[in-house]
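U., I forgot to send this yesterday:
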Amino acid sequence: MTGRPGFGERELSMLPEEVARSPIRGGRVAIAGLGTVGRAVARALDRGAIPGLSLTTVAVRDAAKARAELAALDAPPEVVTAFDALEPSADIVLECAPSQHLPAIVRPFVTAGKTAVVLSCGALLEHEDLMETARAHGGQIVVPTGALLGLDAVTAAAEGTIHTVRMITRKPVRGLVGAPYLVENGIEIAGITEPMRVFSGSPREAARGFPANLNVAVALSLAGIGPDRTELEIWADPVLDRNTHRIEVEADSARFSMTIENVPTDENPRTGRITALSVIAYLRKLAAPLRVGT
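Result:
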């Protein structure tokens, strides 16, 4: 396939860590969701680890709980609000909330010509109109590298012809238990004693069946040949203690394979520690005098 594919017939305009224009403006950051990633980024902003940016507002489902957590910061944000009310008080929003809230979080920012950093990128496949809204109003949707590696190489290869992209994900059992796909298909993994393949298909299918697990596969597909042509396998492995992703790419410009083993966070086995670090690295790039990578 030559050139970059889109959602269906539309051109894909979301590139991993693309910063063609700086969204830093006043440097005001909103965080939607104070889970593992949201808290880590909030702490980094609070201690001044990301030059030029400050945390001004957060949105959560439980405001009282959020205020208690934010009280530990040196300069807690003054505003704790609803997911759809963040835009007036920020220039950039980090979406790390349950995926069903993605439209309410992202749409106001891209409509205002601002930037939305999206972690629930699987939900973008269900809300393709957000890309058109961003294009029409000069906004930007950024999908950071997250828990994956090699997206720069895949993005570059997609400027030529990519023939195949294959991803094999292996996860500890506790990181997959309760996934909708497993429940709906009666797949029981709690007592397995050897690796078990629980899914084979496309990232688009996986985004529906594993909404808390496979945003990395969707990010890979958006960087490469799209969510329908990318091949994906998911394995539950009882001996693993790390989320493992292997990527295999065949293109006219290169053939490459890469493997990453992500250490899960203590709070959430579905989220790797490197995910929050990836967001922080992206935010640092906005005002950096030197940026390395595509």
